[in-house]
């Protein structure tokens, strides 16, 4: 039986992607607007704006950004499409000890976020050598049971990061998720260990790295006129609000121009 690190290496190899190590600097923002869609047939049916949230279930920074994600969903309901996707972390991105994990939690939760509570490092298991695929696979598998929202992955994250439950174990992660969603545990585990779910997680992780980013959380904003904004590692609401409002305004302006002047000349 391969070691946890060997198993993770095999997973990375099947992705065809060598994932970069996390850097100490956080907060990448990129905005691309150089190739706006202006062809009549593509502007005629304006797609809703889309916000894609890349996450790792056990990421503490993803925990801290959840109120932002919730606010975006409420504020732009009906005007934007929202989707979360798994972006697995490399074994080397996880803490190497519980003491190190606690240090990171004091920095993120205390110094940066000034939260009234500290996250619980009890989920950490040195024997796993940084391989914690189970909670992510279970969260992804729950989509097959109708749970495409946030409730199952948040239940798993809460169990781990607030209660210290060792959700790196597949059986434990399944139990937490099955209880939260009243899902048949055997069926959920079978789905979480299936080739189909693994392939989806591999694909979304590869997609994440294709954006040339390596921080979780990351947000990719796209609109109907070809604009794209990338937020990697930021956990504050204001930059996202400003960008989404600007992109929606530009899209509306394109639609108004077309309504008054029609599509562009063929020649």
Question: How would you describe this protein?
Answer:
The chain has about 270 residues and is an alpha+beta fold. It has one domain (about 5-15, about 50-225): Glutaredoxin (3-Layer(aba) Sandwich). It has ten helices and five strands. A five-stranded mixed sheet has the order 1-5-4-2-3. Strand 4 and strand 5 form a beta hairpin. Mean pLDDT is about 90; it is low at about 1-5, about 10-25 and about 35-45.
Write a short abstract of this structure:
With 267 residues, the protein is α+β, with helices and mostly antiparallel strands. It contains ten helices and five strands; from the N terminus they run H-E-H-E-H-E-H-H-H-H-H-H-E-E-H.
What does the secondary structure layout of this molecule look like, with pairings?
Elements: H1 4-15, E1 28-32, H2 40-44, E2 49-55, H3 60-75, E3 80-86, H4 98-112, H5 134-141, H6 151-161, H7 170-181, H8 185-192, H9 195-210, E4 218-222, E5 228-232, H10 237-261
Helix pairs in contact: 1-9, 5-6, 5-7, 5-8, 5-9, 6-7, 7-8
Number of helices: 10
Distance between the termini: 65 Å
Percentage of residues assigned to helices: 40-55%
Mean pLDDT: 88
CATH topology: Glutaredoxin
Percent range for β-strand residues: 5-15%
* Structure class: alpha+beta
Number of strands: 5
Which architecture does the CATH hierarchy give at level 2? 3-Layer(aba) Sandwich
């Amino acid at each position: 039986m391969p070691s946890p690190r060997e198993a993770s290496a095999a997973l990375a190899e099947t992705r065809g992607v060598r994932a970069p190590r996390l850097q100490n600097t956080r907060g990448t923002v990129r905005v691309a607007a150089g190739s706006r869609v202006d062809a009549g047939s593509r502007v005629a049916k304006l797609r809703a704006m889309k916000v894609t949230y890349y996450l790792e279930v056990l990421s503490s920074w993803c925990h801290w950004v959840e109120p932002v994600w919730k606010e975006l969903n409420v504020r732009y309901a009906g005007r934007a499409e929202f989707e979360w996707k798994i972006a697995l972390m490399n074994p080397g991105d996880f803490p190497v000890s519980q003491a190190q994990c606690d240090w990171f939690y004091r920095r993120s939760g205390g110094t940066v976020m000034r939260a009234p509570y500290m996250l619980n490092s009890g989920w950490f298991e040195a024997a796993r050598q940084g391989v914690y695929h189970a909670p992510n696979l279970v969260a992804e598998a729950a989509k097959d049971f109708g749970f495409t929202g946030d409730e199952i992955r948040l239940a798993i994250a809460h169990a781990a990061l607030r209660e210290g439950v060792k959700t790196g174990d597949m059986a434990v992660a399944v139990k937490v998720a099955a209880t939260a969603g009243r899902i048949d545990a055997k069926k959920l585990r079978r789905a979480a260990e299936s080739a189909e779910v693994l392939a989806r997680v591999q694909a979304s992780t590869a997609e994440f790295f294709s954006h040339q980013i390596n921080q979780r959380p990351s947000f990719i904003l796209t609109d109907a006129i070809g604009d794209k904004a990338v937020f990697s590692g930021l956990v504050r609401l204001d930059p996202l609000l400003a960008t989404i409002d600007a992109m929606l305004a530009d899209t509306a302006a394109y639609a108004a121009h077309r309504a008054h002047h029609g599509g562009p000349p063929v020649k």
